[in-house]
Design goal:
Order of helices and strands: EEHEHHEHEHEEHEEHEE
Number of strands: 11
Helix content: 25-40%
CATH class of the largest domain: Alpha Beta
Number of helices: 7
CATH superfamily of the largest domain: Glutaredoxin
Number of domains: 2
Distance between the termini: 38 Å
Strand content: 15-25%
Length: about 210
Amino acid sequence: MSLRLGDEAPDFKAKSTIGDIRFHEFLGNSWGVLFSHPADYTPVCTTELGRTAQLKDEFARRNVKVLALSVDSLEQHQGWIGDIDETQHTKVEFPVIADEDRKVSELYDMIHPNASATATVRSLFVIGPDKKVKLTLTYPASTGRNFNEVLRVIDSLQLTAAHSVATPADWQQGEDVIVVPAVSTEEAEKRFPAGLRIVKPYLRYTPQPE
């Protein structure tokens, strides 16, 4: 069965390019991004791991730890990282899990037989400090992920976890947010002193809380 939003992200032990890790222990009190790749030494994946490495400071600023995974060996991962560093002009320092026995892939339903019976699809999970799944994304093998969108979603998740707000379509950091229906207008006026913009009784905007 595939993981659903709100499910606890399964814990696991695995070998990685930074040593053996236990997933929940590795995350600690941080947010996490776990994302899989069909195989090492593939062009789209090379650009994705490179882009993730380039965004190291952005993930760190958001208290997010990143882990990649494919079913290839640790030796292959180490060789591939050399290629990524060279071609993408960066340095991959986050762990890449070697899931040769496919235990983690099966735990997270990353193998879709109609796409490939052996390789992982391009899955991504955002996991909160409570170890619950906050976001799932699955891309086809031919389409590289948009990591600016991943960061945007993390910004929204972290903001909405701290305040009684939601983010509208195409929201970007710093833009107005929506007051959730569970908060009355009277309560919202007290909770959000920057003011309300009421379009409809159910559609109320306020400046992004700090």
